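[Meeting: bench + compute handoff]

Bench side (C.D.) handed over the final construct sequence. Compute side (W.E.) agreed to return the predicted structure before the next meeting so the bench team could plan truncations. Sequence as handed over:
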Amino acid sequence: MRFIDEVRIHVQSGRGGDGCASFRREKFVPLGGPDGGDGGRGGDVVLEATTRRNTLLELRGKAHWHARSGGPGMTRQKTGRSADEVLIEVPIGTRIFDEESGEILADLTEEGQRYVAARGGRGGEGNVAFKSSTNRTPTEFTPGEEGTERWLRLELLLMADAGLVGFPNAGKSTLISRISAARPRVADYPFTTLVPNLGVVDLGVDGSFVVADVPGLIEGAAEGAGLGHRFLRHVQRTRLLLHLVSLGPHEHELATVEGASEVDLEDGGERALARYLAIRAELLAFDPEFASRPELVVLTKADLASPEDRDLARQALARQVGEDRVLVLSAVTGTGVKELVRRVQLELGAMLPA
């Protein structure tokens, strides 16, 4: 299934039914009074969050959603039929924007949460409503209200506990395939992952947590370079960032340490620090709130580095983020993977309210 995380749709609610102007005409009922009923209500257009959807793909093929109008009022004070609502199911984590103003109208983050995107018009009043002591035979009635219409922009933000970020080929896809049932494409070239992937890490009786693998970032991503900032929003909801820094060679990578004129790429510590700072800068350029987001730095592909380079990289990053915030692993050999899972579990548990 294709991963679609942004669509535009047009919604239009139904018009209310007109009120009815009529009079009683039964046999043996002299001077029959007004008996026109009210019109029915027009149908609403409603968006509802559900776990049955994990992409906005279905909305890509249907951009227009229109509800029916309410039925007109009838004789004998019968109210017209109200139109059914039109229900649009969207994945949990969908944000709804007004296309014209850019205003966020709703953020559907829970199963069953609903938002009425276009409310149906009210039905008009029949002539019974205008009867009075001075107006015994009213002929007035009111038409139904018009429905509303608007263009909406829907954005999907993945709902995950931890988000994997880093340069292309940092080992994100390999790691998520190792710790969960997710099976993203894994290959030895940059930008293998083109769409975000979700994986559930099952801890048995200790519960589980959800990890999001975000496509690789490069310098300038916040301004649209590489895959751009399209997928950066998918880490906005994550409670914990796992910043993966590869210890392997990256010939295509041109990361530089902010504030330094050049970096000694032969120094394993400086090379790892450059990779970390470059991606960190992109996250903060996209959303300054990432500065306060809890983070673990994970040195990956430890099997491809010498013990000396591993130590240099760990020391350089420990000086930057703290000794207890740096882990080393190899997703291929499994070294350090269980320790990372346990650490993530502890970090997430500590964030829960007491």
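W.E. noted at the follow-up: The CA atoms of residues 47 and 88 lie 5 Å apart. C.D. will use this when planning the next construct.
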